[in-house]
Design goal:
Number of domains: 2
Number of strands: 0
Radius of gyration: 36 Å
Oligomer: single chain
Order of helices and strands: HHHHH
Length: 172
């Protein structure tokens, strides 16, 4: 390098400048990384705040308007349109109602059941119970089928609306 007119002190200055430039680049990268981490942290805090406010709003709706309205609220917050959310909430309510009805609850104390068994025999009680459960199951099936039909209609309507809104006409 000295042949090109660059002295030893110039070479040292150039090397020192290159080292300083490299150190500055590393510092800038560290600052960018720290800034990105801070932005991510702030975004997480904002998302948490939004999530908690939404959860509290859902609880308020639950208390004021009931479980079905809270379900509709939650579904609309997740991006569904109101009609589809209501159809899904109605289907869920019908399903929940059917599940509650299926739970067998003892209506008479055991002593009364034993007394009846002694006086009438076990056959009649079981037949009545089977008939009652069969009717209950049939009623629940009808309700569920109606709810599923309404849900399918709402989903088809929503899909058709999406198709209609996405049609593109090419003008040549």
């Amino acid at each position: 390098m000295q042949d090109q007119g660059i002295g030893e002190s110039d070479i040292k200055r150039i090397l020192f400048a290159e080292q300083a430039l490299e150190a500055q680049k590393k510092l800038d990268e560290a600052k960018k990384k720290a800034q990105q981490e801070e932005e991510n942290r702030l975004q997480k805090v904002a998302d948490l705040r939004k999530s908690e406010l939404s959860r509290l709003e859902e609880q308020r709706v639950l208390l004021e308007q009931g479980e079905k309205a809270a379900h509709v609220f939650r579904l609309t917050q997740q991006g569904l349109d109101k009609d589809t959310a209501e159809a899904i909430a109605n289907a869920q309510a019908a399903s929940d109602e059917a599940m509650k009805a299926r739970q067998i609850q003892p209506t008479q104390p055991i002593a009364a059941t034993e007394s009846r068994l002694l006086s009438r025999g076990p056959r009649q009680d079981k037949m009545d119970e089977v008939a009652k459960n069969t009717k209950l199951t049939a009623d629940q099936s009808v309700k569920l089928n109606e709810a599923i039909g309404r849900l399918q209609t709402a989903v088809e309507k929503d899909n058709q609306a999406k198709k209609d809104s996405l049609s593109v006409k090419v003008i040549t």
